[in-house]
Each structure stands twice: as C-alpha cells, then as structure tokens.
Amino acid sequence: MYSFKICVVLLIMLHPVVQARYAWYGPGNGYAYFVIDINLSYGDAKLQCGYYGATLAVHAPKDRRIMKILEEHLTVLTEQDYWIGLNDIQREGRFVWEDGTLLTKSQENWYPTEPNNYGRGEDCVGGNHAGSLKWNDYRCSYGKLYALCERAL
Ligand SMILES: [Ca+2]
Ligand SMILES: [Ca+2]
C-alpha cells in the first residue's frame, strides 16, 4: 500500500512534465510545435515528425522572435540540441529549408565558426549547439539530436 501511494504521488508529479513536453504548442505564427525527446539522426527525425503528420521545423527557426517564444514554452529547446528542417545535402554550402526555400542571410543563426562542414562533411542543421540557442551543421547520420517538429494549424 505504501509503495502504491508513492507511485500515485510520482505519477501526479510527473504527469504535467510529460504532458508539457509532448503537447503541441502554437507560438502564434500559424504552426504548432513539439519536441521528440529521443536521440535521432536527421533522417529518423524527419520520419518521426512524419508519424505525427508534421515535418522538421522550418517556420520557427526562420524567425528569432518566434523561436524565443518557443524556447520559453518548450524549455527542452534550451537544454538539448535538436534537428531543424535545414540542410545542404544537395549542394555543399547551399542551405535549403525542408519547405524548399533557400536560407537567407537575415534568417541565419549560426554558432561562431559554423557552419564548418567538419571532417567527412556536415550537411544537416541542429539548434542550441553547446547550449547557445544557435545552430551547428552536423553529420546527418549523427544520431544524438532531438527533433523539433512543426505542423500547420
Ligand atoms: Ca555541408
Ligand atoms: Ca559543424
């Protein structure tokens, strides 16, 4: 009975956290967001978002003002690295969003010295590099980032 009570207390304590992390949140730009908090490659992150009828986030990362609102509500975005829908897979140095639009200068939010296409090449982009809220290019197969998913409201 004692351990049952502990379980109930733990569930009540954990429930809002779990709910907050998995609830879709709309920062007011016409899209809703949530974070898949497991370590994924870029390809798997795309797939996982797809299971929820979503894509990797494009519209929020284009806009620092919206990202700030998201970071306040989905605090995991300030604690972990996560994939966004941006890559230069097709042509080195030419970063394209998953909606097919080109990355513009004013949208850029790179961590200093990034993107560096390090080593055998890095073509996929993640946010909050080194806890900075800024971007880094990673190897797309690097399976250590969460996924920021987006769907239209
Ligand atoms: Ca690259
Ligand atoms: Ca890099």
From TrEMBL:
In Swiss-Prot or TrEMBL terms, this protein is called Alpha-N-acetylgalactosamine-specific lectin-like
Gene Ontology terms, cellular component aspect? Answer: external side of plasma membrane
- Recorded source organism is Ciona intestinalis
For molecular function, the Gene Ontology terms on record are: carbohydrate binding; pattern recognition receptor activity
According to its UniProt entry, the protein's GO biological process terms are: immune response
Keyword annotations of the record? Disulfide bond, Signal
Q: Does the keyword Signal apply?
A: yes
The residues forming the signal peptide are 1-20
